[in-house]
């Protein structure tokens, strides 16, 4: 895999691990970092040996937001015509394999938005989430106003976005922003363990489960159920469906071949 300057990539078993590594700026998401992240995610998505991806930062910061110093002098026409925070930031949404955000420390602004673009968020006890853009004279620009409300509801999303306050890990768990909170020392192990568990299943079913759940954010209930049914039916064309159900009937562990 290509060498990167602001992220680290490695595999742990069948899990691809991307670590944001720009400590001097608390992993502020500058253009170079987002370019590298997009490349790493696409590389893992194309790697048949990888079944799930974990995205993490440091103990101090998952990411403290878009790079304020990089964007502070940009003009309206520049950000408009460049579609700033456009496709490059949304690469994570195009990844077929599950992406687990393992969040310790600050996940603010674009950092919180990046975590919310992932499929699952696991938080360390010291995690702090927030959309503080209002304090900079702007608003969230990478989906925060749309995804936060879907996770935590209108009142809390308004509270976070209009006051810019931070939410600690316990509040994030209570509010359904994260699936679970773990001690900071075991964050990565827990995330990788979850990734391994997912990667052991039949990858076509994993990809379709991800697609079906994510579609619930975009579609009406009727359309979403219809899509789910179609995806469900299509899995009966896989060898792994035969293997999974035969293994159950024969009281043995299935040997999925991702076929
Ligand atoms: N952009 C650029 N640099 C950043 C940064 C950011 N988002 N966040 C932190 N840094 C830099 C700081 O400037 C500082 O650099 P120097 O040492 O060169 O001065 C370094 O990281 C360490 O930061 P602090 O000294 O501020 O560390 P702290 O522990 O005192 O505070 C913090 C931590 C509360 C996270 C504070 O850094 C902070 O408030 N950061 C900005 C958070 C923010 O506003 N994020 C939203 C950005 S806008 C956005 O994301 C738009 C969008 O929707 C996409």
Oligomer: single chain
Q: What shape does the CA trace take?
A: globular
Strand composition percent:
15-25%
Number of helices: 11
Question: What is the H-and-E element order?
Answer: EEHEEHHEEHEEHHEHEHHHH
Biggest sheet: strands side by side, in what order? 1-2-3-5-7-10
The small-molecule ligands in this entry are: acetoacetyl-coenzyme A
Q: How far apart lie the N and C ends? A: 26 Å
Helix content: 40-55%
Q: What would the average pLDDT be, to the nearest integer?
A: 97
- Would you report the number of β strands? 10
Summarize the structure.
This protein is α/β, with parallel strands linked by helices.
Describe this structure in words.
Its EC number is 4.2.1.17. GO terms for molecular function: enoyl-CoA hydratase activity. Belongs to the enoyl-CoA hydratase/isomerase family. With about 260 residues, the chain is of the alpha/beta class. The chain is built from 11 helices and 10 strands. The chain has a 6-stranded mixed sheet with strand order 1-2-3-5-7-10, with helices on both faces. A 4-stranded mixed sheet has the order 4-6-8-9. The mean pLDDT is about 95. Acetoacetyl-coenzyme A (CAA) binds next to helix 2, strand 6 and helix 4.
What is the fold's blueprint, element by element?
Blueprint: E1 7-12, E2 15-20, H1 31-46, E3 52-56, E4 61-63, H2 68-71, H3 76-82, E5 99-103, E6 106-108, H4 110-117, E7 120-124, E8 128-130, H5 144-152, H6 154-163, E9 166-168, H7 169-174, E10 180-182, H8 187-199, H9 203-215, H10 221-234, H11 239-249
Parallel strand pairs: 2-3, 3-5, 4-6, 5-7, 6-8, 7-10
Antiparallel strand pairs: 1-2, 8-9
Helix pairs in contact: 5-6, 9-10
